[in-house]
Design a protein that fits this description.
CATH topology of the largest domain: Fructose-1,6-Bisphosphatase, Chain A, domain 1
Number of strands: 14
CATH architecture of the largest domain: 2-Layer Sandwich
Strand content: 25-35%
Helix content: 25-40%
Structural class: alpha+beta
Bound molecules: adenosine-2'-monophosphate, calcium ion
CATH superfamily of the largest domain: Fructose-1,6-Bisphosphatase, subunit A, domain 1
Oligomer: single chain
CATH class of the largest domain: Alpha Beta
Shape: globular
Largest sheet: 7 strands, mixed
Order of helices and strands: HEEHEEHEEEEEEHHEHEHEEH
Length: 261
């Protein structure tokens, strides 16, 4: 496992250098996917191609689930699976040139083994898993405090908040405040480091894979909004939090469903 950890760290650092070079060149192409706010750039594709090539060289048998280039569906999770988001927070990448991440999750026989989230512009790598614990760069991370909903900041997607979906506005009201970074990786880093108590958003598997592995290693709760295991099949409502905040938020979700039925 140590060999694989070192390999993946090297790939991520090389991918990040590639991203920084592309920012400096300032000639990336930007296309839309499913609407004017759903962007993909030539850099997302270059980074994904680079990571796919490294994975194929390292383990030709491994399967890959990744956001771009028609690799976004996988039904067979047997063996080793790499789940990749080449750039998480593409809108931030394009508009802010910061606040985006590169993420890789490694699964073996359907079980989360290793997660990596790299905040590229801050040179901040979170990595780890159940067997080895979680690290920030080379520093071992301790399990964050079990913050209750009222004692911390909740990460939330803006549309859920606006529509008060699943009592999202009440979750926000009961917390210390809401944060919306536009980057799932940053929200998940916040939770892993104990700077957030929960995160709820509509996410795809490559948005939540790496973070879920590290959160579970730290004893945090991770599921879909109804408390069921995540499906790794398209976008779904993701919910994660400290045990206390998660429990309170799940109760608010259930309450909203009773009120609406
Ligand atoms: P992405 O940049 O890799 O697409 C923004 O709220 C966060 O949610 C980002 O991490 C973004 O990841 C993710 N996300 C997933 N699907 C999205 C969508 N259809 N529109 C906007 N953000 C999406
Ligand atoms: Ca992406």
């Amino acid at each position: 496992m140590q060999i694989m950890i070192n390999e993946i760290k090297n790939w991520i650092k090389e991918a990040a250098d590639l991203v920084k070079e592309e920012i400096a060149k300032n000639d990336m192409t930007i296309d839309t996917k499913e609407g004017r706010k759903d962007l993909v750039t030539s850099v997302d594709k270059k980074v994904q191609d680079f990571l796919v090539e490294q994975i194929n060289n390292f383990d030709p048998e491994a399967k890959i689930l990744a956001e771009e280039d028609g690799r976004d569906r996988l039904t067979d999770f047997s063996g080793r699976v790499f789940v990749i988001d080449p750039i998480d927070g593409t809108l931030n990448f394009v508009l802010e040139k910061e606040n985006f991440c590169i993420m890789i999750g490694v699964y073996e026989e359907g079980k989360g083994k290793l997660g990596f989230i790299y905040n590229v512009m801050q040179d901040h790598l979170l990595w780890g898993g159940r067997e080895i614990g979680v690290f920030i760069n080379e520093e071992n991370l301790t399990v964050p405090k079990d913050l209750s909903l009222k004692d911390g900041l909740v990460g939330m997607n803006s549309s859920m908040y606006r529509k008060n979906a699943y009592n999202a506005q009440i979750m926000a009201e009961r917390s210390m405040g809401v944060r919306m970074s536009g980057c799932a990786g940053l929200e998940l880093i916040g939770l892993i480091e104990g700077e957030r108590n929960a995160y709820v958003s509509s996410l795809a598997p490559w948005d939540y894979a790496a973070g879920s592995i590290m959160l579970e290693a730290l004893g945090m709760e991770v599921s879909d909004i109804n408390g069921n295991p995540l499906k790794f099949a398209g976008r779904e409502l993701f919910m994660a939090g400290t045990p206390s905040a998660y429990k309170e938020m799940r109760a608010l979700v259930e309450q909203s469903e009773t009120e609406n039925s």
